[in-house]
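hey can u run this one w/ magnesium ion bound, need the structure tokens asap thx
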Amino acid sequence: MARSVLKFGGTSVADLERILHVADIVAARARAGEKIAVIVSAMSGETNKLVSLSRGAAGEDLQDGDFSDEYDVVVASGEQVTSGLLALSLRRRGVRARSWLGWQMKMMTREGHGSARIDRFDYDSGLAEAIDGGEVAVIAGFQGISENGRVATLGRGGSDTTAVAVAAALKADCCDIYTDVDGVYTTDPRIVPNAKRLEKVSYEEMLEMASLGAKVLQTRSVELAMNHKVPVRVLSSFAAPGDDNPGTWVCSEEEIVEKQVVNGVTYSRDEAKITLLGMEDKPGMSARLFALMAREGVNVDMIVQANARGEGRANMVFTCTSADAMKARGVLEKHRDEGLYEDIDVTSDVAKVSVIGVGMKSHAGVAETMFDALFKKNINIDVIATSEIKISVLIDADYTELAVRALHTAFDLDVT
Ligand code: ASP
Ligand code: MG
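ok here u go:
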């Protein structure tokens, strides 16, 4: 029996008209014999509204422990509304359907509130039987219940993770993530109009793309899909049922026969660079520095250390988000007198541009092609970082678009 999991994000259920359109898509698939669980997000903008309402009610003083459990109660309500509305719209089309909230399907979470993780969900809720019996289950995404029985949410974008978790547990044949784009692209089409929709992309590549700012899927959902080998497809919810709508498959590397050396070019402008000049060059200094950063919750990305000209001195450069850089500067200023460094410079006029591809593992010359393409546009490279399937450079933020375009062309990704 083919079980399918379908997920519709906020823009796909933005108003009643869109919800009725989603009902058309689901109804067509249900009539074709698929056994369906649909996961829905809150109507677009709704979660943001609920977040600011909670903040307003809590005021400045409430600590996390007093805040986030009730925050979850508030923000989880957006998905409850959509699940009921979609179930009603399906019934209007003569399709048997009911809504399922996190607590009803026993979607158990751990690790607290605000960004809880899914632990398991219990089968004895009757969800699987309902689906197999031909009733569409309309599941409120993003929500579950904590160990002590309170409402918990999975972090922003968490409905993707709900969808993948449900698909894994139901052993569904597909997990179709319907969204406002028709697939995953080689780069941001707003920058490169002739960017290509990828037919397939590996979990690993998708993880890099998601964490680097291609916001199609919540990173955690991709990790979960990879661990459970859930075949995920990203496709458009704006197409009519029956339209050609192939989307992009996110699958394991082995299922991709023709591996591109580079499959995507991503960028992130929310970067800052911190330079520490004249650190003492002796064991333990990096450990001390990054312990300070960790304690402040600064998420460090690229790190480069090099010997300085002065005897026994080194310079350290690292990057993080602009918001984290403010925190970092604050603590570092406090520790200036302890020999940790002589001078500090913080700039956020930088951007990170990366090329990603599993084919890189077995191909030489990727770095050369990348650096040469940037050189031909006269773009200076500030910091370089690499992993098995990614090369990232930090450049002047003014050149972000130019760099993305040049790399997209250099790696033959333009649609011709
Ligand atoms: N509604 C939640 C959010 O906006 C969860 C989701 O849509 O995935 O983050
Ligand atoms: Mg989303």
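The first helix runs from residue 16 to 31. anyway lmk if its weird
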